[in-house]
Design goal:
9 helices, globular, alpha/beta, 9 strands
Length: about 270
């Protein structure tokens, strides 16, 4: 689905990949409803849209996607502004503290699952009936490299993103005979503020074991790949050289791939 002249909803639109997706969509001629938990972040996105002269096509919506009642209000709220809804980027997400499962408390586990999985399900369920009425529509769900590959210290985060993977693939199969396209995205290491926005503190060790062999991808480049996936109706897309390489390696030898990433990330747990 080409995004020009379409109305598209983006969660996590106040920062990182979400903000870059919003700005790119605007540049491509779309109208955008940016959803985020933080008003100040939304205001910053609006200011950046003003700088490129496209703020008139952007609406801001303060919402916690883990709040089912609030999410149910969003479709009508957005329709009242833009008149229609053609696409949805379920991009918002958080990580967990870098600790082992044994040391992770249940409130944190619940928060990660609520935002990363249930929030995405709430958004999908709330907007899908409208999308099914459009001449063409598309949903892009952000999973993670951690959704197909186990990362020590991020096991609950990975479980939430694995749930997103299967949910999205199932949704794709269910939408096969409709005008709604569905794409799942697997970002690797992207230059964003997800750590800070998740309330996670990290003490990066100086030893080489914690240093990745892969260069982090900019949020701008990631957004280009993700929006391109919608426009080209991709089934799945791995974003970043690390995600592409490890996706292939995990298919060939899952145990070796798990050990490889454990060596890369293990020092964060010390």
């Amino acid at each position: 689905m080409k995004v020009q002249n379409k109305v598209i909803v983006v969660t996590g639109g106040g920062d990182g990949m979400g903000r870059e997706i919003v700005l790119l969509l605007l540049k491509k001629g779309a109208k955008v409803a940016a959803v985020d938990l933080r008003q100040e972040a939304l205001d910053e996105t609006h200011a950046m849209a003003e700088k490129i002269g496209l703020a008139e096509h952007l609406s801001l919506h303060l919402a916690n996607i883990a709040n089912h009642q609030r999410v149910q209000e969003l479709p009508t709220e957005i329709l009242n502004i833009h008149g229609s809804i053609d696409g949805l980027f379920n991009n918002a997400g958080i990580i967990q503290p870098f600790v082992k499962i044994n040391d992770l408390d249940f409130p944190t586990i619940d928060r990660v699952m609520q935002v990363n999985f249930y929030g995405l399900v709430f958004m999908t369920k709330s907007f899908l009936p409208l999308l099914l009425t459009r001449p063409e529509a598309h949903i892009v769900n952000t999973s993670s490299m951690g959704g197909f590959l186990p990362v020590p210290g991020q096991s609950i985060y990975g479980a939430s993103k694995a749930a997103v993977k299967l949910f999205t693939e199932g949704l794709h199969s269910e939408m096969r005979n409709t005008k709604v396209g569905v794409t799942v995205v697997f970002p690797g290491a992207i230059q964003t503020h997800i750590t800070e926005n998740s309330g996670v503190k990290m003490n990066m060790p100086s030893d080489s074991a914690a240093k990745s062999d892969f260069k982090m991808l900019s949020a701008t480049k990631a957004a280009e790949m993700i929006v391109g996936a919608m426009e080209n109706n991709k089934y799945r897309v791995c974003v970043g050289s690390d995600s592409k390489f490890l996706d292939l390696l995990y298919r060939v030898n899952p145990k070796f791939a798990a050990g490889f990433i454990a060596k890369q990330m293990g020092s964060l747990l010390k």
